[in-house]
TrEMBL record:
Keywords assigned: Repeat, WD repeat
Taxonomic classification: Eukaryota, Fungi, Dikarya, Basidiomycota, Agaricomycotina
Keyword Thylakoid: no
Pfam family, one: WD40
CDD domains with a match to the protein in the record: WD40 (cd00200)
Gene3D superfamilies tied to this protein: YVTN repeat-like/Quinoprotein amine dehydrogenase
Name by which UniProt lists this protein: WD40 repeat-like protein
Superkingdom of origin: Eukaryota
Placement of WD repeats on the sequence: 1-27, 29-70, 71-112, 120-155, 196-231
InterPro entries: WD40/YVTN_repeat-like_dom_sf, WD40_PAC1, WD40_repeat_CS, WD40_repeat_dom_sf, WD40_rpt
Coiled coil stretches, renumbered: none
Keyword Electron transport found: no
Length: 251
């Protein structure tokens, strides 16, 4: 509804904030006080999936702030989560090196992908939910998988670890954030078509505007940057912070 934002933290909490006043709405959401490393809001905005240090994926009802489902399968931190466009599947990526697909209604793990990574840092569905892209530490690649069968479809080589991924809404481009560079790939050919340069450390997160014209990136170089994807150039000066940045989101 663009009036609220949800945050998750290693302190084990999820918190709901009012954007206009900047104040927290009601109490923290907690379950077992285990650190929360990732989260993703369902397409209808009613459920939040959270990934925790205990390897579990939890589903939360946004209105009641209560856990409605808890899925076990990963053996280490769940670092990344993504919903399918229809809200029927959740994909999770873990530092155990696997990506898993979960059936939301049945609460079951329906697909497990053993990636080439020691740890998965990003997993994202294509807009039509037919493919999954994964990335992580080790091997310096992005992998494209069939979301139903887990078959490896393509491998995109990089020069460093890839910590962040995003598809454009039309599915025609896949964007990756790695060491210093943001790369754009044409998904029809899987060829690299552009590089966005400016960061001086790892790009930990990227987020697209709804019209795919603006990209925001967050980096260990203590800056966030805005990019115009029509020109592939930066917009304005870097947004300076005092610490490394782990996340960024566009309204």
């Amino acid at each position: 509804d663009t009036r609220r934002i949800i945050t998750c933290s290693w302190d084990g909490s999820l918190r709901l904030w009012d954007l206009k006043s900047g104040t927290q709405t009601r109490e923290d959401w907690r379950d077992d006080n285990d650190g929360v490393f990732s989260m993703a809001l369902s397409p209808n905005g009613e459920i939040v999936a959270s990934g925790c240090g205990d390897g579990k994926v939890r589903l939360w009802d946004v209105e009641t702030r209560k856990v409605i489902s808890k899925w076990a399968g990963h053996t280490w931190v769940v670092r990344t989560l993504c919903w399918s466009a229809d809200g029927e599947r959740v994909a999770s990526g873990s530092w155990d090196g696997t990506a898993r697909v979960w059936d939301v209604k049945r609460g079951k793990n329906v697909l497990t992908i053993k990636t080439w990574h020691k740890g998965v840092w990003a997993v994202t569905y294509s807009p039509d939910s037919s493919k999954l892209a994964t990335s992580g530490d080790d091997r310096n690649v992005v992998q494209i998988w069939d979301a139903k069968t887990g078959k490896l479809l393509n491998t995109l080589k990089h020069e460093g670890w890839v910590h962040s991924l995003a598809w454009t809404s039309d599915g025609k481009k896949l964007i990756s954030g790695s060491y210093k560079l943001i790369r754009i790939f044409d998904t029809a050919t899987w060829q690299q078509i552009a590089i966005l340069e400016g960061h001086t450390q790892h790009v930990n997160a990227i987020s697209l505007s709804r019209n795919d014209r603006l990209l925001v990136s967050a980096s260990d170089d203590q800056t966030a940057r805005l990019w115009n994807l029509d020109t592939n150039l930066s917009v304005g000066p870097p947004l300076q912070h005092q610490q490394n940045l782990r996340s960024a989101a566009l309204s």
